[in-house]
Amino acid sequence: MTVNMEGKAIRDLSRIDLTPWQRVFRDVAIAILDADGFTPSAWPSYETRKMDRILEKGGVVHLVHFHHYDFRDVDARVIQNASNHLYNAMRNHGIRHGILVFSARRPGSVPSLWGDGENETIRLFGASDLQRLARHDTSLLGLLEDYMRRRNVELVGDTVVPLAGDAFDPTEKLVDGKALVAELNACRAGRAGAKAFEAICIKALNLIFYDQLDSLVAKVGVDEGLSYFDALGTLNTRRWTGFWQDLGTFFRCRYVVFEFKNYGKPIGQREITITAKYLNPKALRPVAIIIARNGEKENAWKSRLQQLRANGFVILTITGDDLAKMITRFDQGHDPSEVLSAELNRVMTSLPL
Fold this sequence. Notes:
By secondary structure, the chain is of the alpha/beta class. Helix content is about 40%, strand content about 20%.
């Protein structure tokens, strides 16, 4: 369990009520595994969560985690974190075999089986793997393909998204999410904690979006050094997925401006106007992301919509709580960029005629 900027507990994401798409994916995946010979198991001393199951096949017990993602492709490091989360649950409950089932395509760097097959093992089933399992059952295959089609996702086999750094290893924890959130919470609001807040924001973004953004460059000058914005990120077109790929494809964006506001109160219209001065679509820099510790006022929200309508500038604002949630999501093997995607959808669907 982690703590947000106001000191409130953030629950384990696996305990939060499921969205309709999560429920549909879980039920379709369970039906496919059932047809492949997996049956429910009454394993002692294990509390089954909404996206967990304990199944048996041939007398072998498996702990199964299901992960639903909003995008067809996700960062391979997200899958590694999900595998690490499953691995730790296996160790905690004395279960030697696990299965990670996820709705995205399995990245080319992620194996279908980790382990030696005898001791601790984890099988990894992405969307295309499920399609292969269901290929002999037309009704199940139809359910899976209908689910993917309704999400506007095409099944075309596994993708190749290299895993940066070392080889895939579920025993390795890429980020200590609790420690990172604790650092974020330790920052004092206001000018006194501004530098620390900026540093932890850059650290967190570099860690959770390592494969999506080239390292953020801090304090970037424009107008011959007369103005500075807090950080600039360059989209990694070789490895981008999901939200970041959408920015590049639909908004002709290669560079993203980041601003970090550690104010004790919500930001206002003035901060939006200043941020807009740093954007330039001709320089492939039409998008800014503001991390405002305490959110924004109504006039800031209206100003963002006006900048989009008048200039084509996409300015997204997330709170300190949102950043803590993104860190927690990445730590538990969920896609942190879905928080940004939800904010992008809110902006685009709120634009007046």
